[in-house]
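Checklist before submission:
- one chain only
- standard amino acids only
- sequence pasted in full

Submission:
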Amino acid sequence: MVKKEFYIQNQKFEYNSKDEFIQIWKVFENDNYIDFYCKSEDDKSLILLKNDKFGFAIYMDFDGDSGFTSCDFNNSKEIFSKFILSNGQIDELAEFNLFDHSLCLNIVLDFIILGKRSELINWKN
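Returned file contents:
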């Protein structure tokens, strides 16, 4: 079972239900950039970045794991998209590691409800 807390924009939030989580998410949903982090009781974690067009995710099975990153096996473009983290850091990520930002909420819900990597996107190790 995933802990009932998470971070968006470096702010800690707690929730008691899926509906409550979605209400909190919707406050940030239209922001140009989202920096999300959640860790489960069994040490799995999900980091998700979102801009106005794309999402990027990292899933780790345990602390120190090299993890899995989102990827698009059908996209080999060396085009980069900008993400701004909650600490002000600017990252530019290649589009072949990104997915449509409309999937972000469902990817996060798969993690917090099911405690696993979402099957909505491709992952590479």
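Reviewer check: The two ends are 24 Å apart (CA to CA).
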